[in-house]
Amino acid sequence: MESYFSSLCREVTEWGSVSQRQELPKIASQIDADWLTDALQATYPGVEVATVALVQSSEATNLHVVVKVSYRRSHGAPESMFCKLLPLDDRRSAIAATSMGPNELRFYRDLAPYLPLRVPQFQAGMHDPSDDSFVLVLEDLNALGCEVSNGIRGVTADEAAGALADLAALHVRFENHERRNVEAGWVQELAVGSSYGSTMLQFGLENHRDRLSDDFAQISMVYINQRERLHELWTTGPKTVIHGDPHIGNIFFDSGRIGFLDWGIINVNTPMRDVSYFLNMAMDIQERRNNQEELLQHYLNVRRSIGGAEISFDDAWSAHRIHGAYCVVASCQVVTFPPDATQNRKIFAEAFLQRAEAAIEDLESLRAIERAM
User: Fold this and answer.
1) Do 311 and 180 share a structural domain?
2) How many CB atoms lie within 10 A of CB 116?
3) pLDDT of residue 256
4) What pLDDT does 97 receive?
5) Residues 225 and 281 reside in one and the same domain
6) Residue 21: its pLDDT value, please?
7) Is residue 336 part of a domain?
8) Which side of the chain, N or C, has fewer Cβ within a 10 Å radius?
9) What is the CATH number of the domain that holds 124?
10) Does pLDDT of 3 surpass 80?
């Protein structure tokens, strides 16, 4: 990756030009009028910020900040913005090493404008490759009346149909490797990854086994002992660019349409990873049970109608069952049941785990992976 910063300052040249040389904000209070004026120039040329007021600050995977902005000259820039930065706690270096921040910045800048997806509107983004810190500035969805689920509210069948059509458009666009290399060559294939998930699942088994279903526990053991083999199963199939993490916490509801958040795990993999994970971990459980076969066929029909490579229903259903097992790994942080979690986080985690356990039981995912292996 080309260096965007000189050794004496942090002058962004790829994510957006700046008129003054300033350090990239590392904490919320550093997102001030001068910095934001510079950051917004690429999107709103001539904008001049007067004041920036911190409205909300919270930490999930990253630091999330909402600011209210007043202007001397707005040039159409919004009065409320959502900002994402690296967390401030001891996870900072580990999360920086994943490159999720730079990947998400690049998605919004390079790919989002050309995709028929509802995603937050990009306002500004900057990245410092010296330590992989970043600032991503997006539209404030709450200010627009959009809803991010608390985990309990799931996607309905009608909403899922629209979301799957949008995912099909993403998948089909990039299934040709030549086009993918030209337009999204920076997106990497999914790697096996670290032992982080195994460690968390082992902790859950040793300390909270009574709170986990038998199938969940057995799939956890398979993953702990045969992680690379399961990775092979989860990366088998046609390759394309996928979201990679479309669970209930990474989508939003906008007047009946589903939008997609958190593109930090964007990768090249089989489209069935997105489809299965969305059905299992974003939908209302009963809605999925009643409609998943029809929705899966709907996705395949949309693919076919826009020129996508043929995937048979039988192959898609088999993959859906196998990918259902990934819901266990996706729940690795949940099963540690951290005692200091907020009440809202506990509500979300409980709903997340319920979705995972229901999916692997309904799809008999343990049997599916054992047969495939």
Assistant:
1) yes
2) 10
3) 93
4) 84
5) yes
6) 46
7) yes
8) N
9) 3.30.200.20
10) no
Q: Are 322 and 368 in contact (CB under 8 A)?
A: yes
Choose the final residue of a domain: 144, 173, 195.
144
| Sign of the Cα pseudo-torsion (213, 218, 221, 227, in order) | negative
Distance of CA 36 to the CA centre of its chain: 25
Which of 144, 177, 201 is the last residue before a domain boundary? 144
Q: Is residue 6 part of a domain?
A: no
Query: pLDDT tens digits, residue range 224-265?
Result: 999 999 999 999 999 999 999 999 999 999 999 999 999 999
- Check: CB of residue 31 under 8 Å from CB of residue 11: no
Same domain membership, residue 297 and residue 195: yes
Cα separation, 189 vs 250, whole angstroms: 21
Q: Which domain holds residue 120?
A: 28-144
Dihedral angle over CA of 341, 360, 165, 125, nearest 10: 30
Give the span between the Cα atoms of 273 and 44, in whole angstroms.
37
- For residue 22, the model assigns a pLDDT of 63
Distance between CA atoms of residues 93 and 99, nearest Å = 10
> Which tokens in the block code for residue 118?
């509802």
Question: What are the tens digits of pLDDT across the range 48-57?
Answer: 999 999 999 8
